[in-house]
Amino acid sequence: MAKFYRVMWLAFWINALSGTALLAADATTKLTEPGLYFKLGFIALAVTTMILIRRRVFGNPSLDLSPVTSGAKLLAVTSLVFWTGAITAGRLMAYFGPVSGAPGLKNRIP
């Protein structure tokens, strides 16, 4: 699994670049939306957790010789929670906050 970290980082940077381009296309609207900051916070926490997993779990020389520790399991669950939070916050941005190109209007959930 440690070999997939290169693929994960490549995918992360592709998403970061495309997300930055989308943000730049509508920065005045998106930067006023609190959901964006929740999403960015969750992403920062998830990336930090990913680095911790790499160091603490895959950096353990006895990884294949011993059972998975409870700390490693906690990091895995934490990572899933943070990535789920980032995805959820991103999806909710479509339903809450200002509408692109229409100042003063808000999206409404029917």
* Biggest β-sheet: strands ordered side by side in the sheet: 1-2
Number of helices: 4
The percentage of residues in β strands lies in 5-15%
- Poorly predicted regions: none
Given helix and strand content, the structural type is mainly alpha
H/E element sequence: HHHHEE
Shape: elongated
Terminus-to-terminus distance: 44 Å
How many strand units?
Answer: 2
> How many structural domains are formed by the residues?
1
Report the biggest beta sheet as strand number plus sense, adding barrel if it closes. 2 strands, antiparallel
Rg calc: 18 Å
Round the mean pLDDT to the nearest integer and report it.
Answer: 85
Helix content range:
55-70%
Reconstruct the topology from this structure.
Layout: H1 5-25, H2 27-30, H3 34-57, H4 70-92, E1 98-99, E2 102-106
Antiparallel strand pairs: 1-2
Helix pairs in contact: 3-4
